[in-house]
Amino acid sequence: MYPEYFADRPVERLIGKGVNDDALGRCLDQLYETGVSELFEVLLMIMTCCLMVYAALEHKIREELKAKDPYFPNLKYKPSQNPTARWVFFCFQGIDILTISEEQQLVLNIEERNRIIIDYMGPTYPQIYS
Fold this sequence. Notes:
Elements: H1 3-6, H2 11-15, H3 21-34, H4 36-68, E1 72-73, E2 79-80, H5 85-91, E3 96-99, E4 105-108, H6 112-120, H7 124-128
Antiparallel strand pairs: 1-2, 3-4
């Protein structure tokens, strides 16, 4: 990046106090030996797979809502048939599983908007959230 700028800076000023510069050096050495370009290639493949799953899920949610005519509330709680996957994920936050015994578990905090997605996404989802 700017090697001449960083050359005379102390490590604490560059990355903060309390950092074990020996461990940092070993980590950077391992990155160099592994090859940074290979590491970025692997990270790029993982990120691409994640985006592909995200887009596929969003497509499936929208197609199911349009095919069966229910509505999912949008950010303003108005009916919508094309929610983003991010919004659906956000709406599913806070759902908990209470384990009473090994045989008995309760799913808590499911709202009506969650039921819409659970009921229309296929047979696996009601099994998970019931």
